[in-house]
Amino acid sequence: MQLFPQSFHWGAATSSYQIEGAAFADGKGKCIWDTFVEQDGAIQDGTDGRVACDHYTYYRDDVKLLKELNFSHYRFSVNWARIMPDGKDRVNEAGLDFYKRLINTLNEQHITPMLTLYHWELPQQLEDEGGWLNRDTAYYFAEYAERVFREFSAEVPYWITQNEPWVASRLGYGEGVHAPGKKGLNHFLTAAHHLLLSHGLATERLRAMKQTEQQTGIALNLSSHYPADDRLSSQEAATRADGFLNRWFLDPVYKGTYPKDMLTIYEKQTDLSFLQQGDLEQIQQPIDFLGINYYSSDFVESSPVTTENPTGSKPVQTSLPKTAMEWDVYPDGLYDLLVRVTNDYGKQPLYVSENGAAYRDEVVGGEVNDEQRADYLDQHLQSCLRAIQSGVDLRGYYVWSFLDNFEWAYGLSKRFGVVHIDFTTLKRTPKQSAYWLQAFIASQRVHS
Ligand code: IFM
């Protein structure tokens, strides 16, 4: 059997709003998701994250479960509004204390923390001042990042600035289906730029403060895009789709530029005056690793440019197996992506910082038989192994998600966890995929 490197991270991932609950406990401020879930029709099943998994109460049991399942690393996010209720100035000590308890418990169990500073919980006060459309938010983020780093850098070796800036900007400010529910191409690009700027500003500060043991990076949601057929127009559409999702974020972070082809496309449709002199240099800070969140890939063809579809490309239906999100299962896309990022942006430490699938799970006789999820994980892990054999410096894999949780606009109805949550009793039941992972991780540990 081919083995993963012995230092490989066997991780599970979650985020604050999706699992913690305790939405208004102990001095926490309101964040944009607390506001968004109150809007009629915003969440498909009418649920919210006020309680979610109540990880705020059950974090000790959850860490114990992580240990039992053999995970060596845990990726979680801290909620900006829990730590700084207004987003700036005032620090809520009780909020910091919760994360202190969580991090201590992880370290007691020898589970290494990977901390994400922003997984979309913008304090409502900052949104009221313009949110990510306001350049100042990037500077407030850097201050918040510095404060959290000062508090926890001795205990936390892995730091992620931004999680999925494409999702935060496109779904939150471009399409209006995520908080704060704003729409428009200009809003999308402005918010994306300020999120990237915030990454650059925070990274610079963290690097100035860090010792050798702390590593900083960013987590991007990336996919592979393939032409749906042999037409030149489909190949061009695939390039544009790649520019929209991947290169618009990778190029500034690594090359300090926005991709020229995409600038030309966007300039025809909107004003890019949010881009100020020196911004791209600020965004292009050295990072220690890239986190890649991968779920699916797209096969695309050309389609008319519209307000909703600024790049004129659309995914076609395929006959590939689908998850409960209707996302294609395509593990080769992960292999292609890992190799491509290495080839185009240089060999560097990569983590699959999220990968997983939602299925329609049910507890029957005290068990959840989610064979499809175990297959999904197995196939994607095989892609990871293949990528390592092809020379990719892949250092870890974090399953999304540890627990079933609040899946944003879909509410509690889409289950991504390897651990089932009964959202009425809050009972945790590891699914068969969790036991499969437990055994897989054990099989990778060689005892000398
Ligand atoms: O649940 C989300 C997570 O918050 C960010 N990445 C994708 C997951 C599944 O949609």
C-alpha Rg (nearest Å)? 21 Å
CATH C-level category? Alpha Beta
Continuous helix count = 15
The helix/strand class is alpha/beta
Strand line-up of the largest beta sheet: 1-2-3-4-5-7-10-11
Beta-sheet strand percentage? 5-15%
The CATH homology group name: Glycosidases
- Low-confidence segments: none
Q: In total, how many domains does the architecture comprise?
A: 1
Question: What does this 3D model show about the protein?
Answer:
This protein is 41% helix and 15% strand. It has 15 helices and 13 strands. Helix 14 runs parallel beside helix 15 (432-444). It is globular. The two termini are 17 Å apart. The mean pLDDT is 98.
List the helices and strands and how they pair.
Blueprint (H helix, E strand, L loop, with lengths): L8 E5 L2 H4 L12 H5 L18 H14 L4 E5 L2 H4 L9 H16 L3 E7 L5 H5 L7 H17 L5 E6 L1 H10 L10 H25 L5 E7 L3 E3 L4 H24 L4 H8 L11 H5 L5 E5 L4 E5 L10 E3 L15 H15 L4 E6 L15 H19 L4 E7 L18 E3 L6 E3 L1 H13 L4
Parallel strand pairs: 1-2, 1-11, 2-3, 3-4, 4-5, 5-7, 6-8, 7-10, 10-11
Antiparallel strand pairs: 8-9, 12-13
Helix pairs in contact: 3-5, 7-9, 8-9, 13-14, 14-15
The structure holds 5-hydroxymethyl-3,4-dihydroxypiperidine.
5-hydroxymethyl-3,4-dihydroxypiperidine (IFM) binds next to loops.
